[in-house]
Amino acid sequence: MRIGIRAHDMEKAPLEELVKNIKDKGFYSTQLALQKAIHDFNTSPEAMTPGMAFYVREIFSRYKVDIAVLGCYLNLANPVEEERKQILGTYKTHIRFAGLLGCGMVGTETGAVNREYTFEPANHSEKALEVLIENLKTIVEYAEKMGVIVGMEPVYKHIVSDIERANRVLNAVNSPNLQIILDPVNLLNYDNYKEQDDIIKGAFQLFGRDIAAIHIKDFQVGNKKIAEIPAGNTGLFHYETLLTLIKSRKPFIHVLLEGTSPSNAIIARKHLEDIYQNISSGE
Asked: What is the 8-class DSSP label of residue 99?
């Protein structure tokens, strides 16, 4: 298990200092969302040249930190045609860039039926799923040409809202270049959080071979709502269920902390390592 952290959850710093901080806090990998994490030079799509990719790659290589996921979390179901075309173009730019960067995966969530990228019941409709599949096919076909994986992250409030819909999308696109970024807490809500073990195990049963990366955070429940919190020992997430499956099925997968801050990142990492060690030693 290679524990990493999202780069934009670290201290805001110039790129080399940022990567050094990731390494110094004991992390092996990161999820890099360029415009959220890098502030000392232009990272817009027009700036994503081979030269920039090689520069970024050199710095991460210097500190032996993997770029596990290149983030591109845009709305693939944006209802405005011109905006959607621009979004698809941005995905293609990230896919090309990922190949040059030495990063094997571009990560995405699955969007909403509105421009605002917010929850509404129509996100869970069949029509929304059909639109998403059509647009995913476009970028996955491009990813196949570039030798890059598109990592799809299911989220309850988005179009791919549960493990069954995720499996349907995998089957419909039918490409080894579409895989899953599994964040179990993203799939929980007040009505199903007590079934989290079944959801985690079900994901591995339905599409375990296609899980390419893991996100981990924790949650609490109050006022009939799920509240996300950083990983640690203060929430309700069943770490043992997930980490046991990782140990037996995917021991070298990138596991990325989500929602931490510089002040609690090391505590969260050590919490995972302690649980994982106990599982691996049979305790």
From this structure: H
Choose among 69, 110, 65, 102: nearest CA to 215.
69
Delimit the domains of the chain by residue range. 2-280
**Is 185:228 a contact under the CB 8 Å cutoff?**
yes
Residue carrying structure tokens 């040409």:
145
pLDDT in tens, 79-119: 999 999 999 999 999 999 999 999 999 999 999 999 999 99
Q: Mean pLDDT score of the chain, rounded to an integer?
A: 96
3-state secondary structure of 106: strand
- CB-based contact 200:242 (threshold 8 Å): yes
The pLDDT of residue 280: 66
Closest CA relative to residue 184, chosen from 144, 226, 121: 226
Q: How many CB atoms lie within 10 A of CB 138?
A: 13
Rounded-to-integer distance, Cα 36 and Cα 148, Å: 22
User: Residue 251: exposed, middle, or buried by beta-carbon count in 10 A (0-12, 13-18, 19+)?
Assistant: exposed
Q: What is the DSSP letter of 10?
A: S
Fold (topology level) of 2-280: TIM Barrel (3.20.20)
